[in-house]
Design goal:
By secondary structure, this protein is α/β, with parallel strands linked by helices. It contains 11 helices and 13 strands. It has helices at residues 2-7, 49-53, 77-86, 98-111, 127-140, 186-201, 207-215, 226-234, 287-298, 329-350, 359-364, and strands at residues 23-24, 30-31, 36-42, 59-64, 67-72, 89-95, 145-152, 158-164, 174-179, 217-221, 303-309, 315-318, 355-358. A 5-stranded mixed sheet has the order 7-8-10-9-11. Strands 4-5-3-6 form a 4-stranded antiparallel sheet. A two-stranded antiparallel sheet has the order 1-2. Helix 10 links the parallel strand 12 and strand 13 (355-358). It is globular. The two termini are 26 Å apart.
Length: 365
């Protein structure tokens, strides 16, 4: 179980939070005026994009064998073009001004009237709105919904999950779904909330949903990193880590996704507190991560699945992440079958193509 918790990662996204990446505006928010996202493509087979970009003061948004997206500040764009040409690498600008996109999101959220505990699932919502909605659906659906408090964040915010399922005297297996360990991945929070709402509102109406709630207890934690999420609304839209203080440095936060105890400190983690993939000072050092591990390992519920929602890209990944080796054969076959069934179902319903595979083999092939 903890191995799965530790290594359920969807995509590696790296940003640095210095003024070379974003500068503060009049409202003290970090701004990204003129910053662009470029998609790089090698013109020859011997191209090594990670090595080429490593020392170029650009940040990797997406690192996949078939798609390599980087975040480029205005000050380095001209020089970076020259570097890419020297290595025979082409680029396409897929986002010309990141701040315009951020402003558009912010303007929509600010123009929205008070929802009184209701959510619009085609918009993003603040932590306050999310928590108010969670309390409301719990009050309105007491027969199938409970609000479960699993701990507190570094700054003292409550970590709350919705438990959705019908009453049972014998105890049912559980499904755990969490989102938002990386604060800026707002679509992950929204996806978790949408899923919870679908389960709640379609109970009795949809026979399949009714069966799912009778067979399993669904635990959905939509905001695993509330401190970071609030910070993305108030200070820096692209903040990724937790907000814990790191001793001996002004750099704040830990990459919660690399803080789990299983194989902590191995491949893919970094011991620099200023890096967005900083693993933390010790395993489970972050209250948010410790709370999840503690709840799952001490719960009387037997959990059959653990899903961790991330962005961006269309991937359905399963362990391992710290190595390209497969999980034991019996586990690998089940994980691979379920992953491929999931992506086939998604494509059949929505026409959206997802890639399924283990993290190590899919991200490193």
């Amino acid at each position: 179980m903890i191995a799965s918790i530790a290594k359920t990662v969807v995509v590696v996204i790296v940003l640095i939070q210095a003024c070379m990446v974003g500068c503060h505006g009049k409202d003290d928010k970090v701004r990204y005026d003129g910053f662009q996202v470029w998609r790089l493509k090698c013109r020859n087979l011997n191209c090594d994009l990670p090595t080429i970009t490593k020392h170029q003061q650009v940040d990797v948004f997406l690192n996949l064998p078939w798609s390599y997206d980087v975040f480029v500040s205005p000050g380095v764009q001209d020089n970076f073009r020259v570097v890419l040409e020297s290595f025979n690498v082409s680029h396409t600008v897929i986002q010309y001004d990141v701040q315009r996109m951020i402003d558009k999101q912010w303007n929509i959220s600010q123009s929205r009237p008070n929802s009184l505990g209701r959510l619009k699932f085609n918009e993003y919502h603040s932590l306050h709105e999310i928590e108010r909605w969670m309390r409301k659906v719990t009050r309105d659906n007491k027969d199938i919904v409970q609000l479960v408090d699993i701990g507190k964040s570094y700054e003292g915010r409550r970590l709350r999950a919705l438990k959705i399922g019908t009453a049972s005297t014998s105890g049912k297996p559980g499904i755990w779904i969490q989102a938002g360990v990386h604060a800026r991945e707002w679509i992950s929070h929204a996806s978790a909330l949408y899923l919870a709402n679908q389960l709640i509102t379609n109970y009795v109406i949809d026979p399949l949903v009714t069966e799912l709630l009778s067979r399993f207890d669904w635990y959905i934690l939509p905001v695993l990193n509330p401190d970071g999420y609030v910070y993305t609304w108030t200070k820096d839209r692209l903040w990724r880590k937790t907000r814990s203080i790191n001793a001996g440095t002004d750099c704040v936060g830990v990459d919660g996704n690399r803080n789990y105890g299983y194989k902590w400190g191995g491949a893919g983690s970094i011991d620099d507190p200023c890096d967005n993939e900083y693993r933390g000072p010790f395993p489970n050092s972050e209250p948010e991560i410790y709370s999840v591990v503690n709840f799952l390992t001490r719960s009387s519920t037997t959990f059959k699945a653990f899903l961790d929602l991330h962005s961006y890209s269309q991937l359905w990944l399963y362990p391992w992440c710290y190595t390209e080796e497969q999980t034991p054969l019996v586990d690998h076959e089940k994980q691979d079958y379920l992953a491929r069934l999931a992506v086939e179902t998604i494509e059949g319903v929505h026409g959206m193509h997802y890639t399924a595979g283990s993290y190590g083999s899919t991200m490193c092939e």
